[in-house]
Amino acid sequence: MRTRLRQLLVSAVALLTASSALPAATAADGDRGGHRPSHGGLSAVIRYTEYGIPHILADDYADLGFGTGWAQAADQVCVLADGFVTVRGERSRHFGPDSAPDFSLSSATKNLTSDLYFRGLRDAGSVQRLLERPAPLGPSREVKELMRGWAAGYNAWLRKNRITDPACRGASWVRPVSTLDVFSRTYALAVLGGEGRFVDAIATARPPAPGAAPKAAEPDAGAAARAAGELFSAADADMGSNAVAFRGDTTANGRGLLLGNPHYPWAGGRRFWQAQQTIPGELNVSGGALLGSPITQIGFNANVAWSHTVATGVPMNLHQLTLDPADPTEYLVDGRAERMTRRTVTVAVQDGPPVTRTQYWTRYGPVVASLGADLPLPWTAGTAYALSDPNTTNLRFADTSLGFAKARGTADVLKALARHQGLPWVNTVAADSAGHTLFTQSQVLPRVTDELVARCSTPLGRATYPAAGVAVLDGARGDCVPGSDPDALQPGVFGPARMPTLKDAPYAENSNDSAWLANADQPLTGYERVFGNVGTQRSMRTRGAVEDVAAMAAKGGLTVRDLQRQQFANRVPAADLAASDVARACAALPGGTATGSDGRAVDVSRACRVLAAWDRTVDTGSRGALLYDRFWRRLTRAVPNAQLWKVPFSAADPVGTPHTLNTSAPGFATALADTVTELRAAGIALDARLGDHQFVVRGDRRVPVPGGTESLGVWNKIEAPWDAAAGGYAEVSSGSSHIQAVGWDGSRCPVARTLLTYGQSSNPNSPHHSDQTRLFSTGKWVTSRFCEKDIRSSPKLEVVRVSQ
């Protein structure tokens, strides 16, 4: 292996030093900074191809981590540094206690609560203890080396380069990092769906004052169910995804195909970053990694491709505590009192004295004050609630991803999942060169069974569990804790045998609904409610996706080009179902007018004609898409689902129902009138092109962005906040991110097209701040350069040797 690497390094360095066609390493891009190797220490060769995509070549895992940390820092140093301030619990010190983080590593709404949580983890040694566990419970030697190398590479880049990004140029908070910092960032991602979702509730939970009432009023069951359902719904989340795998008998050459379309934030620390990582003879993988990660999370190699979608499994549960009447910081288990553990945390604050707070932890986890603003959990003299998150003992995400990177087929993907059991909140969809497909909801979930809930649920849990899969168990009973499966790595979670899994279906697809309809002809059932629901109405995006991919599979003869067409079809399922009915009902309104919610008559006749002429897509040039988007959002908010459709949902036809819009429903005409009023007030023509108002700003120009919102059901999901005062949508905030369309042709080189919608760099001074965004705007792709011959033939090839 080392002989082969030396040969490749010699070739790479020869290209750098001997070819006048290649730019000098340091002169080409001051933010990358190439350096001759020092004596000893870590080093790697980075070959950059079109769009700033690095191909990192290294001798071992530590060197690979080094090259990856260096290259990520070159593109994203400010975003990365901001995240490390977060996991150290130092945001209040540098940015003030009341500002908000970017929500990439937790849901904290203020720097102070973020710091209290992350500083508390650091003081308690939570991550340090996990690092001491032997693999597979703890990280493998390879992952530890990757993390160590990543920290060294990041630090070396800081030491040898000048920051040009105005977001942190000259900032005191940009500092070297430790391996612990890098692992802490991985830990934050693991608990993002559990403790990380309720950081404010952990930091603000306080015992009642002496003499407080022994018990608060029970939350209204209906309100609690709605609040829990909305909290764990993907409809308004900034993370989602689509992915589909096609079996060999549906493709043109008998080999598998995969289209991955994750939906993630376009700014901040939860961005993807694209690279190829190679240790000759050991590892060769290409794809996207979340910032701060040393290994690919979504990607492909010579034999298999995979993507992830955010799963419906609820990775946490609550325990309702019965407190000691004499002390609200003691709780009873089987009649015996246990004292809560107090974590006293001190946080430095900018321009002020340090802030000290106490957090309260139990055998189940931390005491929390609420599950979101609409579901308070009062801590009274008699009752409190503790949150249990099994991912707080999970540092196995990176090892799971590394197992995928080495896989030779979908069977190896399943083996990696079974061995490491490290995915906290995602499904996996995969295809391989032999024509196999895979869907599996293999995630770390508390072993909350329907039987346990029936036996141990509190009144609150009897409302929240059916509605959202959120169990609230009786914490006073020792027999009311999640049990263990014999094949589970850690106690209290489901083992691999219990995971909803579909192998070798003609297509396997997920769009953030439950596992039930991964293939509509082979429904998955029999899993516990905590995984997701069965037999309930699917989202508009799931319905549209299943319609599309089932038709593709039935047609057969599929190629990578068909996957590319699917990504940018920009079909609007909600329009195919209802736009014609809307246009006809609009045209039938007496006098072409409708009454708005303010009681005024509004002329909507122009809107009727625009909707009738609309092409039912959300391409940047589509006229009528913006009008329908604003109308549909307003209509679906105002009209209950039971009244929206004439033909209700049927589990016997879950993709085709509900259908036939009820245009006589109260609220239909009002939604039309209010939409027309809204657009006119914002100065937006009713037939405005979508791309004129759905955009991002790069430099001094707006870049139009295709795609559509969740409620419209568009595969190419795009979300932007509406700002009526500013005249329409603000910049796109989330949606399609690291897209990959992958197949094989019998050679050793995958046939892959990729697109990182927001580009490699957040630095506005980088040439890779907007180049792929412009591609995305026009529906174009990057041809992946995976094999050596393809990398070396790149007309943009730039070779950089980096070292300590």
UniProtKB/TrEMBL annotation:
<dbReference type="Pfam" id="PF01804">
    <property type="entry name" value="Penicil_amidase"/>
</dbReference>
<comment type="similarity">
    <text>Belongs to the peptidase S45 family.</text>
</comment>
<keyword id="KW-0865">Zymogen</keyword>
<dbReference type="InterPro" id="IPR043146">
    <property type="entry name" value="Penicillin_amidase_N_B-knob"/>
</dbReference>
<dbReference type="InterPro" id="IPR002692">
    <property type="entry name" value="S45"/>
</dbReference>
<keyword id="KW-0378">Hydrolase</keyword>
<protein>
    <submittedName>
        <fullName>Penicillin acylase family protein</fullName>
    </submittedName>
</protein>
<dbReference type="InterPro" id="IPR023343">
    <property type="entry name" value="Penicillin_amidase_dom1"/>
</dbReference>
<keyword id="KW-0732">Signal</keyword>
<feature type="signal peptide">
    <location>
        <begin position="1"/>
        <end position="23"/>
    </location>
</feature>
<dbReference type="InterPro" id="IPR029055">
    <property type="entry name" value="Ntn_hydrolases_N"/>
</dbReference>
<dbReference type="InterPro" id="IPR043147">
    <property type="entry name" value="Penicillin_amidase_A-knob"/>
</dbReference>
